[in-house]
Amino acid sequence: MAGRNFLFVPGPTNIPDRVMRAMMVSMEDHRSPAFPALTREIMPGLKKVFRTEHGTPFVFPSSGTGCWEAAVTNTLSPGDRVLAARFGQFSHLWIDMCTRMGLDVQIVECEWGTGVPLQQYADILKADTEHSIKAVLACHNETATGVTSDISGVREALDEAKHPALLFVDGVSSLGSIDFRFDDWGVDMAVSGSQKGLMLPAGLGILCASPKALEMRHSAQLKRAYFDLNDMINANATGYFPYTPALSLMYGLVESLHMIEEEGLDNIIARHHYLAEGVRAAVTKGWGLKLCAKEAKWYSDTVSAVMLPEGINGAEVIARAFNRYNVSLGAGLSKVAGKLFRIGHLGDMNEVHLMAAIAGAEMAMLDCGIKVTPGSGTAAAGEYWRHHSAPSGLIARDTHKHSKETHGTHSLSGPAVVKG
Predict the structure, then answer these.
(1) Whose CA is closest to 4, among 344, 358, 356, 368?
(2) Helix (H) or strand (E) holding 82
(3) What distance in Å separates the CA atoms of residue 114 and residue 87, rounded to the nearest whole number?
(4) CB distance 185 to 51 below 8 Å
(5) In angstroms, rounded to a whole number, what is the distance separating the alpha carbons of residues 103 and 222?
(6) Most buried in the list 170, 248, 249, 386, measured by CB within 10 Å?
């Protein structure tokens, strides 16, 4: 098919050209005296993305799931009780892992389309006067349903109950895209991966551990080998790894961290919110459809899960978008399989790029018999983006104001772009 594929799944995300170029390197000796310089460039950059001074980052050749395992096995023992909420496929998978590892998981069942139930967490933690709960699990951004949870609220629940449980957070589809504050929120283990906001191929598991969590590795009795943080700590102290690192991805990570530093993390977070609002305008105002997220407080700035009318199979819309228009949309998973499609809007993206997702999804829906008004989605998104302040990472391209100042009364037709 002529033209490039338009990738709008919520991970893997689009890889910037400069990151791809950075990964095009010859292989090298990862035991050489020069290698530690690469490690020592990556770790400080990751600390900035996690917003931590006290946490210790780790980089595994794995997916984010590997870091789930690392977080659990380095801190807990068989039979330990953990608290977790299930409100989507990825919160479910973390629970499933803990169960299979022999942990006693206290599950709070939630409606899919909602997030971490703060009041229920608070009540359970207050009632646990013997502090039998050793860890609290929270999925920051549930990719399956397009829901973001309030992690600072989970920390407040722990603090109000004066509960010593560790706080584990899945930040796979939030880190580098949605505000995440490791130190401020008192997170003990934060899990992420390379293929989302860090704009890389899949293959790096990213973990950040608090001093409290690292201390637990001395008493934790769950079996571990590949994901043993003792091995990583000893090797990383000299700039090396206990096994072969993913060299190309690490060079790409250096470049992506440079890009994040250049745009500024606050600007990146603002850009993701601004872009997400345009997509939400397309869905609700343009197409007249609903999001899987039940309330605005749950809306994710990295992925929108679009509910389809009864009788429409989401898989058919996704297949039509891919086969006819070369647009890749995310599928519904587990309980919401066939009921929705997902638009990923994270990573290296701007307004016009994102218009391709909206236009492609709209044409596919029309082809599948869904009665939406042609052009309504792009019109609604465009109206939002044209009349709302763009973050500085996007308005650096805007020459409208410069044109007016340079050429006096001459200006482009249409409303002026509002500066952010």
Answers:
(1) 356
(2) strand 81-86
(3) 7
(4) no
(5) 9
(6) 170
Q: What whole-number distance in Å separates Cα of residue 372 and Cα of residue 369?
A: 9
The closest of 71, 184, 51 to 135, measured between CA atoms, is: 71
Residue carrying the six token digits 């995310």: 330
- For the cut 50, the answer to whether the pLDDT of residue 420 exceeds it is no
pLDDT, residue 37, reads 96
Radius of gyration for the alpha carbons in the chain, expressed in angstroms and rounded: 22
Residue showing tokens 């993206």: 349
Rounded mean pLDDT, 240-250: 96
Residue with tokens 């006693």: 104
Helix (H, G, I), strand (E, B) or coil at 34: coil
Q: Return the domain boundaries, the chain.
A: 19-262, 264-400
Residue count of the chain, please give it. Answer: 420
CATH of the structural domain 264-400, one choice from 1.10.10.60, 3.90.1150.10, 1.20.1560.10, 3.40.50.80:
3.90.1150.10
280-306 pLDDT, tens digit each = 999 999 999 999 999 999 999 999 999
Class of domain 19-262: alpha beta
- Does position 233 have pLDDT exceeding 60, yes or no? yes
